[in-house]
Write the structure tokens for this entry.
Amino acid sequence: MGTFGEIVEPITRSTWEDWDDEITDNTALQWQWPLDSADKIDTLFILEGRYMSECVKMHPKFHLQLKNSILDANLHLFELPSNKYVCTIKDYNLLQSSEIVELLKPLLTKSKDVITILTKPLLEYQTASQLYSPLVIREVTTSTKTQKLCEFKFEKLEQPNIVSGVAAGVTCLREHLELPATTLVYYIEHTEEYQTDEIQQILEKLKIIDSICKTKVNGLLNSNLYI
Amino acid sequence: MVKTASIYSPAQIPVIGYDPYDLKSSSLSTACEVYKCDSRKILVLQLRAPLVHKYANGFLKNLVSTFKEKQIKDVIILTSSFAHEKKHILSSPFRFVASEGNPHAENLRKAKLVAHEENTGEVKVFGGGFASLLYKICLDEIVPSMILYKYCSEGDNIPDAYDMVHNLANLIQIFSEDKDLLSQLKQPVSWTLLFGRPPPQDIY
């Protein structure tokens, strides 16, 4: 659903690399420290997007221990008690998605379960329905189903909606490894504000955060609007 | 055509969703998938996302060596080029480049397709992405190959897709001749919402 008067054109090739020009390949991404993790991981949570990263950052981190980072991709890996890991990532280059997934591969191959949660602007949600909802939650799962989200009932992501980037790469790799993974997509109107309780509720239920935080960040300070 | 494989590689920008041809399906579709048709002995490699330049060469070399291993007789690369690159405005918007030993030479002549013009000695299809690189690798590996491309503008490319299929059908027999060509094509669901969602009812 676009803002009234907004022209929504199909995405052009502008976000891709220009194959007709000389392309300088970016330097390789790397972990800040050698990656060290348990031999078997119960669950790996990957939280993608600014909202998710900030949400984790704003909560007291008594139980979240920073393990490692990929600074150039704004990726941070935390360890939770009971053999679970949380990875937050925001503002990365889409072209580096597969490289990031390769760096996460050692964790992805030994995790019993992988759950990725990401936010996307509601504008990008494609549906023929004329009904309006400020929040749409959809799920994409591998053929091998995850057990962790059984208590939640999410609708599957309808075609032609797609997920791209790290969340997609992680789910795709797990599908090829015949291991379970679930991607939850939260289509929200304002992807950077802190009033989306539904996201915090699931983070709380998954024991990634302790409680629902009511703090709102002044969006004006982060915007380009000057008064 | 039946989906037979899905390919994972760091050379692809990852994309996932559910089967674009079956709305009820719960099977994952990824950035790179292989479809086959036994009766026509055709394999289609569909890439739904651009390749990452850094890893493309290795991925495509691997792909072509797999083609050789599987004894695939020839490769046809379908792509597009920027409409503004078309020099002769009254000519057909289709161009082709074919390697020596290409089995479609006779059909190309019959279809009166225009050959790609190149003065630099190296095939370059502007806006065609990795097509030129894949063609070059096929030449190096001595796999008969051909690029068929159309000059396209940005926007609704559905008519271009139909045009491409029509031209391809003139070169190789991919459809039943007893039925109308259009009736044998299946549109992906994404084509129905090419310009986004319907306008919100609240605005009226």
Remarks:
- Chain A has one domain: 41-221.
- Strands of chain A lie at 41-48, 65-70, 75-80, 84-89, 111-121, 135-141, 155-156, 163-164, 181-188.
- The helical segments of chain A are 50-58, 97-110, 166-176, 197-205, 219-222.
- Chain A has a mean pLDDT of 82.
